Each structure stands twice: as structure tokens, then as C-alpha cells.
Amino acid sequence: MRMLYFFHTNFPLHPILREKEVKEAVMIMVDVWIAEQRHEDDMYPTGRLFDCVHCNKPYRYNPKELSRGGKGSITNSSAGLTWSGFRPSDDPCKYGYLIPSNMFATVSLTYMMDLATNVWIDEPLSKKCRKLRDEIEAGIQRHGVVEHKKYGKIYAYEVDGLGKSLLMDDANVPSLLSIPYLGYKYDEQVYANTLKFILSRSDPYYHVGHSNGMEFSGIGSPHTSHIPNSIWPMAMIMEGLVSRNVTQKIHIVNQVLASSGSGWMHESFDPNNPKRFSRPWFCWPDSLFAELVMSLTDKCPQPSVGQYSIMKWSAEYAMNGTDFEKPASRMLNVKRPPQNPSKSKLVVMSVCVPGKRFSREYIHASLSNKRKFCNVWD
After folding, report:
1. How many CB atoms are located within 10 Å of the residue 285 CB?
2. Residues 6+ apart with CB under 8 A from 226
3. φ, ψ of residue 269 in degrees (nearest 5)
4. How far apart are CA 46 and CA 368, in angstroms?
5. What is the pTM (predicted TM-score) of this model?
6. 222 preceded by a cis bond (ω within 30 of 0)
7. Is 70 exceeded by the pLDDT of residue 349?
8. What is the pLDDT of residue 309?
9. How many Cβ atoms from other residues are within 10 Å of residue 94's Cβ?
10. Strand partners, 270
11. CB of 23 within 8 A of CB of 120?
12. Residue 281's pLDDT band (boundaries 50, 70, 90)?
């Protein structure tokens, strides 16, 4: 949904947006989320779009991974939240309501309200998205914020809507660390408290180590328990992306580079021996690392603005190799001549200051030249 919306903001007239399969894919996701709000009641979506072999009946996962024969732990079907069996790491959820995923869902549903209203001209779909978004948001506020004896009110990682919660974070996105990156309208104080918790020893998956004079710190994941106390570069990069401090961003970049002897981002590594790692390369953190590099400027984000600016597709002029040479238009209602899709090239940019675009020199500047790296603009 997010990718679809960002594509729309840059190519609002593209015909693929009006293909019925695109809209139907969104309708399927929305209906699944609505049904999974009442997972405990064995609800399932119905209708002409649900014609798969496992449709029109409650679905069960591997009973070796989820309790109660693959249904998962007990949840409150009136919580308003939508259920997940597994985390972004592919590990099974302990409690069925994964708070970061529900936060991401509210953001995505807001995007779909826009598309339903302005592209598909489908007010019933827009209203359905709004109702679901509001119910999930109410559930987050009611069940997703818990009181920690040391840190005060923080966001839980998972809850069951019945009073139980799991306090931790996982490196994989969506995560609690990534809340600003997702575009969620979070409570500033609750998120600040949450950061203090997840970036401390209180989080069972926050680890610290030393190797060759470098200290490594960051969040890991139970997914790589075969490397004890491992850190995921993805989490280190995300910590830099949501930071408002240029010096901290550059420190994290240096940490990440030192952890990667292969020239690519790993899935995880041993902070006391970075040569011990999982996956020689992992494209997901590779892409996030590019975003982190492009966010390195003391004007991005601006303290006066507050929240981190989400990375968006900025590609109107990024055609035929022109990449970052010309500023992208923000006049989305202007009709443009058709582009040749086979020759189009999309790039991800950090849009932090209106009218400003990073130059090629900025992208390729040396980390040792901090002044040039942080302040060069077109």
C-alpha cells in the first residue's frame, strides 16, 4: 500500500493505478484486516475476490509454531486491533496483536483513503478504510501503551488485548524503533520513553560489543539466536534514520561500515567478532543504508518541523539516467507527456526541505569530509 501510494504521488496519471487488479488487491487486504480483528471468533473474509483453496474458512498455521492447533494464543476480539500470526522476521508472535504492524496499517489505510477518494472514486471503500483505521488506532491507544516501572508509558511490541503484553523490540521493520519512519502519528513522550527502553539492556534483544577498538550497539532478533547477542545492521541503520542528530548519524554509518567486511550489509553479526555473521549480503538493509546516507544533513529533519521526513519516490525527472540533476515537481495535478516505462528509472530520495535536492557530489562525498557531506545542496 505504501509503495502504491508513493508511486501515485509521483505518477498520478499512470494507467496502472486504475487497473481493476490494483484496486482489488487493496480491497482484499482491507477485508482480511477487518476479519482478523476478530481472529478469536474464527472470522474470515468472504466475497468474489476470495476464491483460493484456503478461503471461506478459518485458516490454521503450523501447529508447531502457533499454539491451539495453529490458531495462536488467545486474543480479545473486541480490541479493535488486527491479528498477526508472525512478525516481520517470520518468527511466530507470542501475542497476536503486533503493535508496530498495526501502526503501519493505520498509515497505509490513510493512504488508501486518498486513493479511493481521488483515483478510484469509491467513497464506500474510503469509508471502510477510515472506519478500520480509526478502530485500529483506538486499539493502539487502549491496549498498545503500557506502564513500565522504570521508563513510564511506553509502546508494547505485542499485546493480546486482555492485559498481557510483550516488552521488547525486533530489528525487522515495522518495529517500535521505526515508528517515525513508518509515518505513524505517535505520542512524542511515549515514543521517547520507548526509545530509552528498547535502546537499553532492559530490552532483551539490545546488545553491545567491542571489536578492534570499535564499540557496536543495537537491536537484534530472536530470529538469529544461533549467533548469541547478535546485532542487526538494519536496526543500527534505522536508529540513524530516526535520529535528529547529524553526529550520531555519522557515528552509526561508521559503525555499520565497520561491521561489514564484505562490502554489503549482513543480516546480523556478532558485535565482539563481526567476522561471524548471518547472510553475506542482505538487500533490505542495503537499501536502508542508502536512505541513511542521503539523510545526512543538519537540515534534515529540521528541529522546527519535528518528525522525521519519510523517504518518498522522487522520480519525475529521474528518467534516462538524469537521476538527481533536476528538482522534482510537486505539482501533482499537472498533466505530463507520457513516459516510456522501459526507460524510466526510479530513485529514492529524502525530501526534507522543499525545493532542495541532493547533488551527485553530496551522494558520493567522503565521510571524512563532514562539512561537504552534510551541507552540499544543489
Report:
1. 26
2. 278
3. -150, 160
4. 58
5. 0.80
6. no
7. no
8. 40
9. 18
10. 273
11. yes
12. confident
